[in-house]
Structure formats: structure tokens, C-alpha cells
Amino acid sequence: MFGLKFFLVLEALLFLFTCYIVLKIGLKIL
User: Is the Transmembrane helix keyword given for this protein (predicted)?
Assistant: First the structure.
């Protein structure tokens, strides 16, 4: 149970980090 919750949190953080990188690259292109 703990491992599953930890995995979900890790996935959410990875998703936010990816969105942040994409936004930074997008702003550089613009």
C-alpha cells in the first residue's frame, strides 16, 4: 500500500517536472 502511494506521488512529480520543462522550452522558442 505504501509503495503504491509513493509510486503515485513520484509519477505526479515527474508529470509536473515534464510540464515545467516543456513550458520553458516553449517560451524559449516563442
Answer: yes
Q: Which long-range contacts (CB under 8 A, 24 or more apart) does 18-24 make?
A: none
| pLDDT, tens only, 1-30 | 678 999 999 999 999 999 999 999 999 987
Domain residue extents for the chain: 1-30
**Residue 6, C-alpha cell as written in the block:** 509513493
> What is the rounded CA–CA span in Å between residue 20 and residue 30?
15
Residue with cell 517560451: 27
pLDDT at 1: 65
